[in-house]
Amino acid sequence: MAKKRPLILVTNDDGITAPGIRALIEVMNTIGDVYVVAPDAPQSAMGHAITINDTLYCNKLKVTKDEPQQEYSCSGTPVDCVKLAVNEILKRKPDLCVSGVNHGSNSSINVIYSGTMSAAVEAGTLGIPSIGFSLLDYSLEADFEPAKKYIKLLVNQCIENGLPKGVVLNVNIPKLSAKEIKGVKVCRQANAHWEEKFDKRTNPLGRDYYWLTGEFVNNDKGEDTDEWALANGFVSVVPVQFDLTAHHAIKDINTWELS
Amino acid sequence: MAKKRPLILVTNDDGITAPGIRALIEVMNTIGDVYVVAPDAPQSAMGHAITINDTLYCNKLKVTKDEPQQEYSCSGTPVDCVKLAVNEILKRKPDLCVSGVNHGSNSSINVIYSGTMSAAVEAGTLGIPSIGFSLLDYSLEADFEPAKKYIKLLVNQCIENGLPKGVVLNVNIPKLSAKEIKGVKVCRQANAHWEEKFDKRTNPLGRDYYWLTGEFVNNDKGEDTDEWALANGFVSVVPVQFDLTAHHAIKDINTWELS
Predict the structure, then answer these.
(1) CATH number for the segment(s) A7-190+222-253
(2) Reported ipTM
């Protein structure tokens, strides 16, 4: 008996027309029945934002004759897209949610700013196995070909093995040729941060304003981190949880005088 | 010799004019030298969003003669406010960052949607001890008086004891009178989630749109959770980490066939 094809929800934060999501859709079409519900405009760095004080619009898009997927664009954030897809668009809970492929890294601390990963996390909170994919190349002309092999491998393994409860995957792919990529490493999130620099300017009316710029600082020398893996030619896979409790710190805080 | 007064950054996500932040400023003025850098408009449910494709404006506000704090309103998100404050406004790294008091709960899974907590987490990534405060009352007329005692207690304990590295606090305060609040409990984040319901409507031009609504579902019966503490009259304190790695899952994922 043929195995039932999985129902796959595809989303991203760069918007439904981004090359990264087109690459992801192409791979997912080889694996399952694909519904795309993604923002109608770029939503980078939106984190886990949701739309609570505004309306949400959702449009069914036409796809070309030889494309099997269904596509919907949504006026909201990546997390809105997941909520709308699961509750209003898909006929049943999807077997898998994939988000991306993001144009740019979501490794290390970037996971907390990332709309791509927030969409994956949102699906995770709904009990849906979920993976966010990012390529370390911000360019619109980025080459997603070398990434496809690893996306397929990881999605198939995820379908076969399942994911531990409360865990989603953060997958980052180095900007390298297929030959140069050395393989896959399961990692922890590097303990890095951003040091911001604001570019202060004056507008034509004489009012000061700022542009946010920053430098990524990684002082974590561990060889078990995503930053190490990526710098050494590996695809990094970090299992990410949305129980943010620092369980190890509960004992510490309980020594405080709190009565 | 008198102890040096700590430099305290105050922010929130309900906007600089919200009653919750006014209550927090009042308490912080009794403890240290206060700089307020907060959004010029409500930014609820913004999660860890940052402004990367737009300008940021920042205005120094006038305070009344008898108010000692400095105040700045910012056109960005709560996380933008923290970045701007630390890099452009404050003369040195603050000794503490407090965010809130949020109008409404940020307990359990709400921590991942919360602008209040994202501001606290951002300060945490910069190495600043940091606490987010929320009152379980959405009303603009909420009574913040009973909360003030616990805010003062927790901030003083935080200054005295410090926080473990990579940990910030998520403090939620029940909507109860001073007499009814039973004390403080250090907790873990309850394993709860939102079940969304979308209210589908048609606009005057005949186009469908949605309002996001939802129901909070908590099937976690543990008595060590924030939900239990709040339901039983306690102030909940959850230590929150921004290393999202599910360390326990690394071994599992390493059993996958990844080569």
Answers:
(1) 3.40.1210.10
(2) 0.91
